[in-house]
Structures are given as C-alpha cells and as structure tokens.
Design brief:
Blueprint (H helix, E strand, L loop, with lengths): L2 H6 L8 H8 L3 H5 L4 H16 L1 H13 L15 H39 L5 H9 L3 H27 L22 H8 L1 H36 L7 H13 L2 H11 L6 H8 L13 H29 L3 H9 L4 H29 L2 H5 L9 H6 L7 H10 L4 H24 L2 H5 L3
Length: about 450
C-alpha cells in the first residue's frame, strides 16, 4: 500500500468502546472514557434538547409531508394552515440535518481523540480543548453565527419558494386557512409548458426579458463609452462641468426618476405631449406608455438615461489609466485617432469591463424597478390581462403580479426556478472570474 493510501485509510482502534458509546449517545464516550467532560457535556446537552422536543420534530416534519387535512367544520383559526406547516416543517428539517451533522462530528471526534490517546498515551484535558477552540476551531466558531443566519434567512426562504412550485397554492380554491394546499409534483411545470395561457405568456415575457436585458445593457455601455470618449477629448471645454451634469441621473434615486418620467410621458396630460402640441409639432398625443412598441422603447430609453453614467465613470477611469506612452508610440507609427481607439483603447476597456457588462446583463434580467415604476408592466390587452403579463413585463415583474395581484403563488414559484436557472450561470461565471476564486484566497 502506498503512503497516500496509508494516510487515507482509517486508523484501527485497539479500544473502540468510546466510539461505540458516543454512537449510542452523543458525548457519552467523551465524558465517561476520554476525560473530555466539557466537550461531552455540550454534545449530550444537544441530544437531550432534541429528545425533549422529539414530538415537535415529528409533528413538524409530518406536517411538511401532509400539509394538513381539510377541516371545513372547524372555525378558520382552528384549521390547518398548510403554508405555516410548510415553513415550520422546513425549519425543523434543517434543524434535524444540523443535528445529524453534529452527531456525525461527535462520532468522528471520539474516534480522533481515542486514536490520539493510543498514539501518545494521554487524553487532552479541558484546557487543551478550550485552547483548540481558540486556535484551530476559531474560524468555525467565529463563522457559525453567520452561517446560521444564512441558513435560516436565506436558505430556508429559498427552499420554501422552490417547494411552492410543487404545490397547488393558488387562488381561489387553495388559499389557507380556508382551504389546504396539496402537493402536485411537476403538474405546475407541465401547465406552464402545455397550457396556452401560461406557455404563451411565459414565451412572450421570456423573449422580451432577454431582449430588454440585452438592449438596456448594451445601450448603457455604448452610451457611457461614447460620452467618456467625448469628455476626454481635449477640444471639449469645461469637461468637468459636463461630467457633473451627466452624473446627476445616477445620483438621484432611480425610483424617483422613474416616477417623474412616468408623469412626463403620460399620454393624456404629460408635459412632453402638451409642450409638443402647443408648439404645433403634434396634432394628437403620442401614447408613450399605452402603445406596446412605444412603451418598450420608452423603457429602454429611460433606462439609458438612468444607466449610462455608471459606465461613463467606469470607462473614464480605465481610459485615464492607459499609459500615454502607448499612444505616443502609435502616433509615431502613423496610427490615426480611430486606429488608436480600436487597437489600444477599446481592447483595454473591454478586457476590464466585460465581467461588469455580464454582471449588468444579469442584473437587468431582474431589474424589477425599471419596469414597474415606469409602466407598471403595461400596457395590457384582453390576452395579457388574464395571465397578468403586460407588454413591458419582465419575468420578475410578472412574478410580482402573479403573487400580489392574481395570487397564483405556484406559477410564480415555477417562474422563480426558471429565472434562477438562467441567472445562476451568469453569477457563477462572474464569481469564477474573480481573483479570490482563482487563487483560493481573498
């Protein structure tokens, strides 16, 4: 057997009884045979707490499986609330998994301590255990509160949202506590794929979401680059003044700006239409936000007004950091301004901003505010009203309407899974491009 295999092979104990005792009850082997009184007591207290609340664990996890029983004869307060039972079941299932992980750690600890004793002839005392917590286990102890917060405030809500996609939680027949919610498996996904109402709305909204994200990101990026080039031109007078003016849309809260633009573009009494009509340029008001095509164009243009300052500042900083020697050498070689831009400036800008461009694209896929506060997802017609997906709705704003307006929580949960499947690759790609990920350190 090679040295690597020997290192990987488990150590055979001469006295396995401490491990057997800790397997039978957490901490028993540490307390009774290994003189690890404090450690064993902590392990034992955890198992005692779990055993004292065993009925709660069983009832909660059983509720997650059944989601309650219909009890129409009882008052609403006394009926089973399937959603509360699901949340409670997820929480106690997570607690059970954490307990099982700690239980396995207890067995490994007993095995490791016994192996160390058989090698050295002595057990580490309580002081040594506390010292190990301060040294080798400092990272685990220090990060444990943060990990617990992440589990219960991030992982549990995500699991709850995902599980809703496999239920019939929707209005009007399956809204607790008046009615219970049932598990339906993949039926919701089949409905989204096969029913014309949902499949048509999803296809239309998904195509527009990708189109919106592509156009909004590209226009902001190109617009920011063009303004950065203009402001760095030596023939521009007072560039700092123009730079401050162009940054203002980015400095004002986006929600306020979008609501102002919503009033400006109002088709009936909006200042823009009124001004153009008073000047005699228009005979009829332009339906900026009530025509399907114009509403989509308006969303993209307003988002350009809001988003180009970010890329303008970013690209300006990159351009000013390019060594002047490169441009001087290019001029000596006879390169004109266009050649210098395509051969020097553009490659350096793209190299440093492509990850941010991809991140902005993934952000715009979920840019709920840019759509909701400007158009509310509209305009709508007879075909879009029933599904709730308006002309400018992206998947995120459509999910909001399905949840708060139509109360189709199960369909909204299916959409959230599909959106996650689209967004996750972009997020993983951006993270994999970071220096911390490549080098394995911060």
């Amino acid at each position: 057997m090679s040295s690597a295999n020997k290192a990987a092979a488990p150590v055979r104990l001469k006295n396995p009884w401490p491990v057997v005792a800790s397997t039978a009850f957490m901490g028993l082997g540490q307390m009774t045979m290994q003189k690890q009184y404090l450690k064993g007591l902590l392990y034992a207290l955890v198992e005692v707490l779990v055993l004292l609340n065993a009925s709660v664990f069983v009832r909660s996890i059983a509720g997650l499986i059944t989601l309650g029983e219909p009890k129409p004869d009882l008052p609403l307060r006394q009926r089973d609330n399937s959603i509360f039972m699901m949340v409670e079941g997820i929480i106690f299932l997570v607690l059970l998994l954490l307990f099982l992980g700690l239980y396995l750690n207890n067995i490994r600890d007993a095995h490791r301590t016994q192996a160390e004793y058989e090698r050295t002839g002595s057990y580490p005392g309580t002081r040594a255990y506390l010292s190990s917590l301060a040294d080798t286990s400092f990272a685990v102890v220090g990060l444990s509160p943060a990990m617990l917060l992440i589990i219960f405030f991030v992982a549990v809500p995500l699991a709850f949202s995902a599980l809703l996609a496999f239920t019939n939680y929707s209005s009007p027949q399956h809204i607790p506590p008046a009615n219970t919610v049932d598990w339906v498996g993949l039926q919701n996904m089949k409905d989204v794929a096969n029913r014309p109402l949902w499949s048509g709305a999803f296809a239309r909204t998904a195509v527009w979401t990708v189109t919106w994200a592509t156009l909004s990101t590209t226009t902001c990026y190109v617009g920011g680059m063009l303004l950065a080039l203009a402001l760095l031109n030596k023939r521009i007078r007072f560039p700092k003044v123009f730079r401050v003016v162009y940054i203002l849309p980015y400095a004002v809260p986006a929600m306020l700006s979008l609501m102002i633009w919503r009033n400006l573009l109002n088709g009936q009494f909006g200042p823009i239409n009124r001004m153009l009509m008073e000047w005699g340029w228009l005979q009829q008001p332009i339906p900026w936000l009530s025509d399907f095509s114009l509403a989509r164009a308006s969303v993209i243009l307003v988002n350009l007004w809001l988003g180009f300052p970010y890329f303008m500042m970013l690209i300006t900083g990159i351009m000013t950091s390019v060594p002047a020697d490169l441009y001087e050498a290019a001029q000596i070689d006879g390169a004109n301004a266009r050649k210098q831009f395509t051969a020097i400036t553009l490659p350096m800008v793209l190299y440093q901003t492509i990850p941010l461009f991809i991140m902005s694209f993934s952000y715009n896929l979920n840019n709920f505010g840019a759509v909701f506060f400007l158009t509310g997802g509209g305009p709508t017609d007879a075909a879009t009203t029933q599904s709730g997906a308006g002309a400018t709705d992206i998947l995120m704003s459509w999910m909001y309407k399905l949840t708060y307006d139509l109360r189709q929580y199960n369909i909204a949960a299916v959409l959230s899974i599909l959106v996650f499947a689209v967004i996750a690759p972009f997020a993983i790609y951006n993270f994999s491009r970071t220096k911390a990920f490549k080098e394995g350190e911060l």
